[in-house]
C-alpha cells in the first residue's frame, strides 16, 4: 500500500530549545531588521511551495540581501548544527521548498536585480530572485530573449529554475535550464563563496555546473547566475491541430519528430484541459476534439512555410479534424494564452488538483495516455492532461477534493502509479519539477540502492553534514561516514580524536 509521502526528519529538540538564541544571532547577521521572521503568523507565508497539499511552518525564515549575508548565515547554521532550506519564489510543484520545523528557511526573494546585459557575449548576469520572464523583458527591445519559459515564468525565479532544471514550452528545440546557464556564483554550507563557469562557452575540469543545475538546493545556495541570450527568431508561426482521440495526437507527435522536424515547441492538451482553458481565457480552441496540439515553428519564413505544410500533411494522415495556422502575431499569442493558463484554468473546475511530472519516450505516448485513462477509472478521479509533448514531458493534473475523506490518499496513489508507469516504459520520474518530497519515496523504482548511495556520496562532497534541504530527494539519507566517504576541509579531518587505521 502506498503511504503518504510527507514524512520529514524528526525535529531536533536541542535546536528547537535554542530558537530564541538563533533568532537573536541571525538578526545580528542580517542588516535589515525585517530580514529575520520568527512570528508564527508571518511564517505562514512560507509554509509550503506549489505542492500545497503538504505544509510545515519553518522554525525561522531569513531574507538576506547580499552574498556576504548568505555566507554568514550558512556558516553560523553549520556551526550551530541547524538545517537550512533554500527558497526562491515558492512556485515549485514537488515540495522541494517545504520548510523544516527545526530549520532556517533561507529566502532569496531580495536578490532580484539584473546585474549586467552583455550582448557581445550573448549573456546576462542576474541574481537568483529575478523572474524568468523579466530576463526576456529586459532584452527583447534589442532583439534578444531567454529561451526556457516555464508556464509560471511570470512568477518563478531563475534560481528556482536552476534548482529544478526547469524547461517550458520551447525546451524541445532550445533545451532546459541546464542548456542555457553558463555560470553561477554559489555559497557552500560552510559559507565559502565559489564560482562555477562564467561568460565563456565551457569550463575546464568536471562539469560541476551541470551537477548543480537540478540539484534541488541540496548542494549549495546560488547567489548569481549567468544565462545565455538568443537572438529573436526572424519569423514565428503556430498551428492548432485537433484530433478525435489522444492516441492519434500522440502518434502525430512521434511522426513529426521522426520526419526530422524539430518545432520550437509542441504542446498537447486533452479534452478536460481544452475546455477548462477555453472557458478561462477564450483562446478560440475547438471544443469538439479529444486532443489538441499546438505546434510552433521559428526561423526563416520560407522554411516555416514548407514545414507548416509538411506538418499539416502528417496531421491529416494521423486523423486530424482541425488544422488552423496563426495568421498574425496576436493570433499566435492567443493560441499560447490558453496553454499558459491551463494550470489556473483547471483550478476553476476542481477544488484541488495535483500536478504530476514525468517523462517518457515519445513513442510510448499513445500507450501511456490509454493507461492513464484506465487508472482514472480505477481511482474514480478525473485527470486533465497538459504535455510538453515534443520531449515526452507529461503534466497530468489529477482532480480531487481534499475535504472528501480519502481523496487526497487516492490522488497520491494515482500519481504514484502514473510515475511508475513512466519508468516502466523507459522514462524517468521527473522532467522539470524535481523530486522534492513528492517523488522521494519512488526513487527506488528508478534507481538501485547502490545508485542512490553514489548520488548521496556526491551530496556529501558538497555538504558533509547533510544540513542543506534534508528530507528531500533521497528516500533514506545515510550519513557520509556510512557511505565510505569522508570530507577533508583545509587539510583537517573531521573528528581528529577518533583513532584511524
UniProtKB/TrEMBL annotation:
Keywords: FAD, Flavoprotein, Oxidoreductase. Residues 54-232 form the FAD-binding PCMH-type domain. Pfam families: FAD-oxidase_C, FAD_binding_4. Its cofactor is FAD. This is Lactate dehydrogenase. It comes from Sneathiella chinensis.
Amino acid at each position: 500500500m502506498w503511504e503518504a509521502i510527507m514524512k520529514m526528519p524528526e525535529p531536533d529538540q536541542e535546536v528547537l530549545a535554542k530558537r530564541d538564541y538563533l533568532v537573536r544571532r541571525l538578526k545580528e547577521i542580517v542588516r535589515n531588521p525585517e530580514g529575520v521572521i520568527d512570528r508564527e503568523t508571518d511564517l505562514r507565508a512560507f509554509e509550503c511551495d506549489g505542492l500545497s497539499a503538504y505544509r510545515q511552518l519553518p522554525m525561522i525564515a531569513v531574507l538576506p540581501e547580499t552574498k556576504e549575508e548568505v555566507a554568514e548565515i550558512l556558516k553560523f547554521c553549520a556551526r550551530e548544527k541547524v538545517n537550512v532550506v533554500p527558497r526562491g519564489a515558492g512556485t515549485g510543484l514537488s515540495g522541494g521548498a517545504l520548510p523544516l520545523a527545526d530549520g532556517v528557511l533561507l529566502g532569496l526573494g531580495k536578490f532580484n536585480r539584473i546585474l549586467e546585459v552583455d550582448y557581445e557575449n550573448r549573456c546576462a548576469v542576474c541574481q537568483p530572485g529575478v523572474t524568468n520572464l523579466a530576463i526576456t523583458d529586459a532584452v527583447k527591445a534589442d532583439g534578444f530573449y531567454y529561451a526556457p519559459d516555464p508556464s509560471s515564468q511570470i512568477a518563478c525565479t531563475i534560481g528556482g529554475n536552476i534548482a529544478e532544471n526547469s524547461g517550458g514550452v520551447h525546451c524541445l528545440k532550445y533545451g532546459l535550464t541546464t542548456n542555457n546557464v553558463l555560470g553561477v556564483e554559489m555559497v557552500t554550507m560552510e559559507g565559502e563563496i565559489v564560482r562555477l563557469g562564467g561568460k565563456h562557452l565551457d569550463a575546464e575540469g568536471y562539469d560541476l555546473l551541470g551537477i548543480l543545475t537540478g540539484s534541488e538546493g541540496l548542494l549549495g545556495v546560488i547567489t548569481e547566475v549567468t544565462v545565455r541570450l538568443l537572438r529573436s527568431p526572424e519569423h514565428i508561426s503556430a498551428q492548432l491541430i485537433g484530433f478525435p482521440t489522444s492516441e492519434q495526437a500522440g502518434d502525430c507527435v512521434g511522426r513529426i519528430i521522426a520526419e526530422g522536424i524539430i518545432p520550437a515547441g509542441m504542446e498537447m492538451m486533452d479534452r478536460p484541459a481544452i475546455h477548462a482553458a477555453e472557458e478561462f481565457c477564450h483562446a478560440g480552441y475547438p471544443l469538439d476534439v479529444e486532443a489538441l496540439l499546438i505546434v510552433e515553428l521559428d526561423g526563416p519564413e520560407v522554411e516555416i512555410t514548407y514545414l507548416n505544410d509538411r506538418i499539416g500533411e502528417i496531421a491529416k494522415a494521423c486523423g486530424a479534424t482541425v488544422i488552423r495556422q496563426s495568421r498574425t502575431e496576436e493570433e499566435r499569442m492567443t493560441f499560447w494564452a490558453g496553454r499558459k493558463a491551463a494550470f489556473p484554468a483547471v483550478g476553476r473546475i476542481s477544488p484541488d488538483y495535483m500536478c504530476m511530472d514525468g517523462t517518457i519516450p515519445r513513442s510510448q505516448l499513445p500507450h501511456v495516455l490509454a493507461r492513464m485513462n484506465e487508472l482514472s477509472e480505477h481511482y474514480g478521479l478525473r485527470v486533465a492532461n497538459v504535455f510538453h509533448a515534443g520531449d515526452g514531458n507529461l503534466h497530468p493534473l489529477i482532480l480531487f477534493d481534499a475535504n472528501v475523506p480519502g481523496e487526497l490518499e487516492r490522488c497520491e496513489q494515482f500519481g504514484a502509479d502514473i510515475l511508475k508507469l513512466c519508468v516502466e516504459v523507459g522514462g524517468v520520474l521527473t522532467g522539470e519539477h524535481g523530486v522534492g518530497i513528492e517523488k522521494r519515496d519512488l526513487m527506488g523504482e528508478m534507481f538501485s540502492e547502490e545508485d542512490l548511495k553514489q548520488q548521496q556520496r556526491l551530496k556529501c562532497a558538497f555538504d558533509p553534514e547533510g544540513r542543506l534541504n534534508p528530507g528531500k530527494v533521497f528516500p533514506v539519507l545515510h550519513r557520509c561516514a556510512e557511505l565510505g566517504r569522508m570530507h577533508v576541509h583545509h587539510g583537517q579531518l573531521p573528528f581528529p580524536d577518533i583513532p584511524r587505521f
